[in-house]
Design goal:
This protein is an alpha/beta fold. It has helices spanning 3-6, 8-12, 17-25, 36-48, 74-78, 83-94, 112-116, 129-142, 169-172, 185-188, 192-211, 223-228, 254-257, 300-307, 352-362; strands spanning 28-32, 52-57, 99-104, 121-124, 146-152, 155-161, 235-240, 245-250, 279-282, 287-290, 312-316, 319-324, 334-338, 344-347. The chain folds into two domains: 3-257, Rossmann fold, CATH 3.40.50.720; 279-362, 2-Layer Sandwich (TATA-Binding Protein). The chain contains 15 helices and 14 strands. Helix 4 runs parallel beside helix 11 (192-211). The chain is globular and about 60 Å long.
Length: 365
Amino acid sequence: MASNERYRKQMLFSGIGPAGQKRLGESSVLLVGCGALGCVLADAMVRAGTGYVRIVDRDFVELSNLQRQILFTEDDCRQNLPKAVAAGNRLRKVNSEITVETIVADVDYTNILGFASGMNLILDGTDNFEIRYLINDVSLETGIPWIFTGCTGSQGQLMPVFPGKSACLRCLLQTPPPPGTTETCDSAGVLGPAIGVAASLQAAMALRILSQPPQTADSPTSAQQVTSNFGVPLKLTLIDVWDGTFRQLDISKLRDQTDCPACRQGERLWLRGARKSGSTVLCGRNAVQVSPAEKMQLSLTELSERLTAAGLVTANPFLVRVTLPPNGDAAPTLEMTVFPDGRAIIRGTEDPSVARSLYSRYIGS
């Protein structure tokens, strides 16, 4: 099937047209996280004909994901597939004309610059502020725009960031909200329709950015369009699908009103690794991720053999999983999933000290 036929209805839309479709096909996007938000975003970018989509995700598919993560199936769960791999398998069947690169990795300060290299736009498909502040740092450092998006309960929010031209995430929130001060998907849950609306708005914004020609002060556009870049309004959008409400807050002057340590003073705390943790409680999962101080290259075959004495082991080319027997009648069943780079996700606890102890016992310090 010819490309023009595939994208014909999209090219009929005056905001994109044939020229915009061509620019889309020449664009590259980094999607950080392929959970609920990331699935909708990846699907939208691939179906729209974005030429190169790089998906980076650290996790694997579980049954609880299927309520809202639209790219995955029960078979992906049974195979214990990493989310990036499962998403790539599906997306390449949707559109074989573009390049879908999938990477199973935890995005951190040591690798994000490499992941962002050559990209035109960064999309936020994450579920925690630590990674979002890291994305914000790399955006400011490289000049690559990004779109902040988040969802909890029935609510969603999004905001575009154009380095040097608009407010950044730290203009809005100088530091991440302290633990316990905001709702999370653990405390408030999350509705699939809220994910769909927020991610669709982000995808539409991404298509507008990628399909438009670069604008300069000499472009025949209004001053506001030049300021906002690609005509995207500089607003923080807040939605609630349960109440059916939609609000937008003007942030066009926010950068000028704050002495932002990041975009005004050049501070890069997250990109320098000054703000990081070795363990992360995973939202809504009753699980903790533990990362080694330095990247490793484990032999999954050898690890699988070694862990056989510890419990029930299953493995595939991407990970090894061991289910540990309960330590007492009332003790929870703990499950440890280990990736080749040494990362492990310990399910059955939200206590980082318990997770690190198990990691040290079975994997090493």
